[in-house]
Predict the 3D structure of the following.
Amino acid sequence: MKVVIVGGVAGGATAAARLRRLDERAEIVIFERSGHVSYANCGLPYYIGGAIGEARALTLQTPESFSARFRVAVKVRHEVTALHPDRKTVSVKSLETGEEWEESYDKLILSPGARPTRPRLPGVELEKLFTLRTVEDTLRIKAHINAHHPSSAVLAGGGFIGLELAENLRALGMEVTIVQRPKQLMSPFDPDMAAFLHAEARGHGVKLALGQTVEGFAEKDGGVDVIRKEGPPLHADIVVLAIGVTPDTGLAKEAGLELGLKDSIIVNDRMETSVPDIYAVGDAVQVKHYVTGQDAVISLAGPANKQGRIAADNICGGDSRYLGSQGSSVIKVFDLTAACTGVNESGARRAGLEVDAVILSPMSHAGYYPGGRLMTMKVVFEKGTYRLLGAQIVGYEGVDKRIDVLATAIHAGLTVVQLKDLDLAYAPPYSSAKDPVNMAGFMAENLAGGVVKQFRLEDVDRLPRDGSVTLLDVRTPREYALGHVEGFWNLPIDELRQRLDELEAGKPVYVICQSGLRSYIACRILEGHGFETYNFAGGFRYFDAVVNDCRLIEAATACGMDR
């Protein structure tokens, strides 16, 4: 059996290694257009910024080492220019010699990945305008920086690459501006959670030009003007396009393979395309979203590697199935870590789901053990069923641990209430006896059982200020003086029982505190005295971050007060 693989990065390299482990006699050939295989796309910005010191660290295998270990013919700088399913061959061109030929196959795996999106705008081909997708792109940017010492950069796009590159260029002392049409960074996050990232980026000197349309690029004064619809040009020494990626499926389209969203390749759960004996994996394929069941294109290394393994299993006579992508991801944003899994609240609503969320700001480990740091969690669930749909976390430490627990819970089909039952490891340096994931479950259980009702950020401006309801802030006078929501009056939690007569009976009471904990306790006190109450989800700290662009603080007390 002869297997030809087009593309030798995540999915293609994984497929080749798995094929060899399953079949020692198979002939396996990889054609890779770039000069490298099995390289770490996600590490490229960190080499530019110097966090990764050597370029060779970006490649997990060289063509030589991969060939020696797995006996795979690795052909780098070779481009597959056409597919011929009718005669089971591919056209190949050596980019070094210009030689062209047809290579036969019994099974074909397409792992072409995705290419950086390059908008059709004036000046998009300028010399000082870069993209970042391959090792070659990285070396090109690094060489330019070393040779010309640019002092400023504009990044068009604020997704994973844009944010990571912003941090690394700031580490080099460059002035950095991110410009993009969407009004928030990091689209996998809801706008309220993205607000923490905005404040963190601005706090580290990154300028954000959000909700702005780029109309072209022009050379000026030795640099580049980024022409925008909403204002004067943004000038910088270099520009990097980080708008996103587009499935690289020209070959598949020309060969008549069935395509789907964004011209991605349609595959079944065995990674088989519409053409017999041709498989496809990675950033170029359409998948099912694990939570919504809808078609999606999700460009992440984890799914690509899984898909490569599945394709290899099935080629070798197995029956492996890809269950769908959750979009679990994590990113370092200066001092913060941000992670998400499943579907966000906005996406769930677009999918036609009725949703709600619990929002909490726990410490990463036991508050009495030194060094604990704050995080903000948003856990999204379906109304009525309480099916766990997704989660987003922003914090300083312990974020990756919690998002992986929540990703596992989603995969297992747990409800948000069942999070309370998870038996998670505890020791004071690592967690709390009631882990933040458990706490999210407790909060959802209270909602499900009618123990508490909540109001959300979008409800605040709609609350009447005519005296028909009571708007109550139960923080300390000092906290209240430092900032509060308009219309809410201050009655500290520890004085509440003694001052109940100041609250008018029969009026609903909407309660807020710094984190949501003291306000929850206040709600229970008031409910015990016959009041109808609503607790603000997330607390004033969350409100302040979203509405007033405040950065996330590092630590809080056990009752949720800022330290």
Summary: The longest strand covers residues 375-382.
